[in-house]
Amino acid sequence: MNKEFLEPVAAIARRAGDAILDVYATDFEVQSKDDDSPLTRADMAAHEIIIEGLRELTPGMPILSEEAANVPWEERRQWDSYWLVDPLDGTKEFIKRNGEFTVNIALVSDGVPTVGVVHVPVAARTYLGCTGVGAFRQEQGEAPEAIQTRRPPATPLRVMASRSHGSEAVERLLQRIGDCEKVSAGSSLKFCRVAEGSADLYPRFGPTSEWDTAAAQAVLEAAGGAVIDTEGNPFRYNQKADLLNGHFLAVGDPEVNWTRHLD
């Protein structure tokens, strides 16, 4: 069983979150990576803590992090199980100082995220999920509380949207749905809102990478939801040479035919 990883991985994520907050409290500098995405000292500090912690927890298990993603496909395609990490998801939100950034750690097995931890440093809140066990939300110093998705969806439908990455395709979808409420948030918090039953749908038609979504997908699916592509197929990882995700829908109630609203 993978459930024994939940608490130790959550502890690693919290340590990374503390390091992020140490930088957050300073007048930090922002650099640009090769793809022009922002990078701060907080990204690297969290990365180093997570890598060290996971290597100690599971010696020999491969680790793929956003800050160390140059693993050749010929090597990566041989992996059955590996850790997939975004040390600081929502760097743009971090730079804006709006608090909507997370630490994401997932265990991916045969393309499926089976364990996920999403830690929200500013809120001192952690979301945990494990296939076959369930999903939980834990406030600092308190016991984990079980969470589940809202089934059936609410009326009006509550739809999560990216705060920093708006999309005309999402706006068209909202128009086709009709009776809905749009709520904006940053980072993988959008998945977590669906997982805890405070939203019903998170559509994403813009670019994301595999480390952006895996941990939160594990939480959402453990809570009873699903992440599907625009054809309705399950969302999978490490299936190709590049690490870019296709478009997807993160849904609270998998029994609903969500793809009927698409172009």
Given the helix and strand composition, which structural class is it?
A: alpha+beta
- The averaged pLDDT comes out at 93
Determine the N-to-C terminus distance: 40 Å
Helix content: 25-40%
Strand order within the widest sheet?
A: 3-4-5-6-7-8-9
What are its keywords?
single chain; 263 residues; alpha+beta; seven-stranded mixed sheet; three-stranded antiparallel sheet; 14 strands; globular
Describe this structure in words.
This protein has helices spanning 6-24, 41-57, 73-76, 91-96, 168-177, 189-195, 210-222; strands at 31-32, 38-39, 63-65, 81-89, 102-109, 112-120, 125-130, 134-139, 145-147, 157-162, 180-185, 201-204, 226-229, 248-251. With 263 residues, it is α+β, with helices and mostly antiparallel strands. The strands form four sheets. It has a seven-stranded mixed beta sheet, sandwiched between helices. A three-stranded antiparallel beta sheet has the order 12-14-13. The chain has a two-stranded antiparallel sheet with strand order 1-2. β5 (102-109) and β6 form a beta hairpin. α6 (189-195) runs parallel beside α7. The chain is globular.
Give the arrangement of secondary structure elements:
Blueprint: H1 6-24, E1 31-32, E2 38-39, H2 41-57, E3 63-65, H3 73-76, E4 81-89, H4 91-96, E5 102-109, E6 112-120, E7 125-130, E8 134-139, E9 145-147, E10 157-162, H5 168-177, E11 180-185, H6 189-195, E12 201-204, H7 210-222, E13 226-229, E14 248-251
Parallel strand pairs: 3-4, 10-11
Antiparallel strand pairs: 1-2, 4-5, 5-6, 6-7, 7-8, 8-9, 12-14, 13-14
Helix pairs in contact: 1-2, 6-7
